[in-house]
Amino acid sequence: MIVDEIKREIIQNGKAKLADPGRYIYMKRQALASINLVMASLCYGVSFAFTGTLLPLIREYVDEESETWLAAINVGVMILGSYLGLLVAGCFGNKKCLVLTDIMSIAGWFCLSLASDFLTFGIGCTLVGFSSGMKTQVSLTYRVEIPEKDLRGIISTIITSAYMLGILMGHLSAIIFPWRAAMRFCSLSPIISLFTITLIPESPTWLLSHGYKDEAKKIFFWLRGQTPQSENEFSNMMKKQTGSEGCAEIGSNLRKMCSKKFFIPFVISAVLLTAQSGSGYDVLVVYTEDFLSNMSSQINTGNVTILFDIISLTFCILSCFFIKLMPRRTIFFCSSAGTVITLVLLILIIIYDWSGDILTLCLCVYTACVNLGILPVSWLVLTEIFPESKRDLGICVSTGFFSFFTFLLVKLVPILVFRVGIVAALALFIGIVTICNFVLFFIMPETKELSLHDMEEAIYQGKFYKCFEMVGCKNQHYIVND
Predict the structure, then answer these.
(1) What stretch of H or E contains 464?
(2) Is residue 253 in some structural domain?
(3) Residue 482 included in any domain
(4) The CATH number of the domain where 317 resides is what?
(5) Whole-angstrom Cα distance, residue 103 to residue 19?
(6) Which of 9, 167, 228, 409 could be a cystine partner for 49, CB 3.0 to 4.6 Å?
(7) Which domain does 259 fall in, by range?
(8) Which residues in 316-331 are b (16+ Cβ under 10 Å) and which e?
(9) What are the TM regions of this chain, as residue ranges (predicted)?
(10) What are the angstrom distances between the C-alpha of 391 and each of 189, 261, 351, 403?
(11) Model confidence at 52, in pLDDT bands (50, 70, 90)?
(12) pLDDT tens readout for residues 112-136
């Protein structure tokens, strides 16, 4: 699927530089190297989804309050996983870090499948969540390094689509299998991921930072081909490496975080991820059946859950084509507008107790809007805007922030629903998305068709912008001077 999509992308591009038949060899190599990233995203989706349908099935072992803690633990430990992933990958390499995360995930799922008390469930959730945080940190770094700029958008959105497929698998497993068998079924994704690690090379950036220049050069040209453009990009990568970093980099992270070249992209990514998490989609995934039953007693929660997952996967795949054809900003803001409108309609439907069919239709439109723009664009822009020397740290801090904010929502929103009602939670989501979009309108850059080097140089020079035409008007968006 990945190869076919990228091949179609290349054929339709129409640029003379893409006419070289030898280019397809490197396209296939980039696709093969991305397979493990697809599996990593699938694992993350499965771990995020199992709380929505599997936790309600274990209420004979834990009470409802303990259930919310298990859901929060699964999300909360992703914060620690992100930071540990940065340290482990910095010391031992990204590839070895991925192996460790898969082993931890497999152990976590089998621990959950054998659990019969809160402590064992907590250990299993901790292992699964911890490994998901580490895997996300490393795979996001790979996601931006492997593909060239013409393929970066489509590969990134395919990887995001795998996250939706993982959610679908997690929900389906709870319906098809007994819950213990479902836990073991979920362990298949990290097992397969462990085997696909052989397809992915070590990160060229990590190799350069540790002095392995020849090996880094060999891997980089194996992926991209040896062309004037790739040679120039590799040369720029070498210039930015000031020597071995690895474990010694731990002590310099605070200095990096104080730099404006780090702070400005972090603010943008933090607001983007706040908008994504604050849209309520992640909370809905975690508490699928409980939220749906609170909205209406007229809908079949199991069937509607699977319907949502299919819509999410479909529109996430469609976003591949929209991201290719349209500016990132346009997709994000249109998607956000649709999300806010459908949330307002949901409030009206719940207040006036309209039919379950209308509620289901509105929820389907809401799911489509989130997955068409907010979710894929947020993660794509996050991987693009950090400078190379600060990318690992930037992605680590950003994903840690996302996990922390999602942890707060997962823990506090059920309390809000219990004490005030589901309408209050939906109003909270509307407020978060609206405020974030207002801020992003002024600070979110357009990154479409810019190389990573161009973006880094633009931030270094103090004005990061991309001109684009929309409804006949030209707009420029700047990042303030350094």
Answers:
(1) none
(2) yes
(3) no
(4) 1.20.1250.20
(5) 42
(6) 167
(7) 2-475
(8) bbbbbebbbebbbbbb
(9) 31-57, 69-94, 106-131, 151-177, 262-284, 304-323, 330-352, 358-381, 393-410, 416-443
(10) 27, 11, 46, 18
(11) low
(12) 888 888 888 889 888 988 888 888 8
SS3 469: strand
DSSP 343-411: HHHHHHHHHTT--HHHHHHHHHHHHHHIIIIIHHHHHHHHHHHS-GGGHHHHHHHHHHHHHHHHHHHHH
CA distances from 449 to 151, 185, 266, 324 (A): 10, 40, 21, 9
Contact 137, 81 (CB under 8 A): yes
Structure tokens of 213?
A: 């220049």
Instruction: Report whether 299 contacts 292 (CB < 8 A).
Output: yes
Tokens 């590839």 map to which residue? 95
Q: How far apart are CA 207 and CA 402, in angstroms?
A: 28
Closest alpha carbon to 143 in 227, 239, 47, 44: 44
- Could you identify the residue written with the tokens 């911890």? 130
Residue 55 DSSP label: G
Count of domains for the chain: 1
Q: Which residues contact 253 (CB under 8 A, 6 or more apart)?
A: 393
- Residue 480 in domain: no
- Left if phi > 0, otherwise alpha if psi is -120 to 50, otherwise beta: which for 354? beta
Is 123 contained in some domain?
yes
With beta carbons less than 8 A apart as the criterion, state whether 190 and 105 touch: yes
* Mean pLDDT to the nearest integer, 38-56: 79
Lowest mean pLDDT among 230-234, 334-338, 423-427, 469-473: 469-473
Q: How many CA atoms lie within 13 Å of 417's alpha carbon, on the beta-carbon side?
A: 21
HSE at residue 311, side-chain half, CA atoms within 13 A, is 19
Q: Is residue 474 scored above 80 in pLDDT?
A: no
* Nearest CA among 385, 414, 408 for reference residue 398: 385
Q: Are 400 and 129 in contact (CB under 8 A)?
A: no
Q: pTM to 2 decimals?
A: 0.76
